[in-house]
């Protein structure tokens, strides 16, 4: 199969409005867009973690404008979007953590549901927007603990407030697409990815960041659900899918105004304990291992996979890095960080290496 590529020439000079640009995925996407010559305006709250890739990488300077704002504030969001006058809107701002959604369901629903309504409405009445991509999650599916991957036409749902709120975000996007965008020339798609990993992720209650923090401190890592299976993938894999989908939507293909899965190979859906053991073996310094703890009863899915056949067949997209490559890249990035490397350059080196991959 001839793989479709992220086209640098397409993105050069494109005006992009990106929400959630201070987060982990948003920071990597911002750097990729900037490296291709896109004119990016970011809109987000301040970086959600300390430390953060956005701050340590001095990413603020790569934007046409980096706006500090909340997607729940419609007037502020509309003002920033109108000023940017973008052709492409990529919506990534969210409350992204399952466990935090139990602690603060109101904020989770407000951000993930009304934030989606606000970006759709602001883009609808803007006049310059040609493409809207809403980035949701693999957790938007009604999880039945199947051992096979969910397809884009499976029922949406969500046991916890986070998963439910992202299912709602998908439904809102579909309603706006059918009610307001058909026949307008504005193309709207959604993207669903798995558990992304990579350098610069310091989010709370996430396995890889917790591992990295424990490694760096020489502390024992604690894991909650060692048997839980997740679709792990390097952050650049789904980002390549988002960029490719935006290209197709911009070219005016109504057939692409759908939901799309951008997950890893089926063989890269692995249990938590497997990930811990692999990462431990790749870390070059001594560390005290891990301990299984089961201190609470918060529900977390035990099995979750994505079927990406549609993206592979209709977009000619495929995950390029294996899970082993993704883990290696994460370790190498972390070691570069500890050595005081320029983090912008380090990220761009990994982006270039990813793009240079010609084989699966």
UniProtKB/TrEMBL annotation:
<protein>
    <submittedName>
        <fullName>CDP-glucose 4,6-dehydratase</fullName>
        <ecNumber>4.2.1.45</ecNumber>
    </submittedName>
</protein>
<dbReference type="InterPro" id="IPR013445">
    <property type="entry name" value="CDP_4_6_deHydtase"/>
</dbReference>
<dbReference type="InterPro" id="IPR016040">
    <property type="entry name" value="NAD(P)-bd_dom"/>
</dbReference>
<feature type="domain" description="NAD(P)-binding">
    <location>
        <begin position="18"/>
        <end position="328"/>
    </location>
</feature>
<dbReference type="InterPro" id="IPR036291">
    <property type="entry name" value="NAD(P)-bd_dom_sf"/>
</dbReference>
<keyword id="KW-0456">Lyase</keyword>
<dbReference type="Pfam" id="PF16363">
    <property type="entry name" value="GDP_Man_Dehyd"/>
</dbReference>
<dbReference type="GO" id="GO:0047733">
    <property type="term" value="F:CDP-glucose 4,6-dehydratase activity"/>
</dbReference>
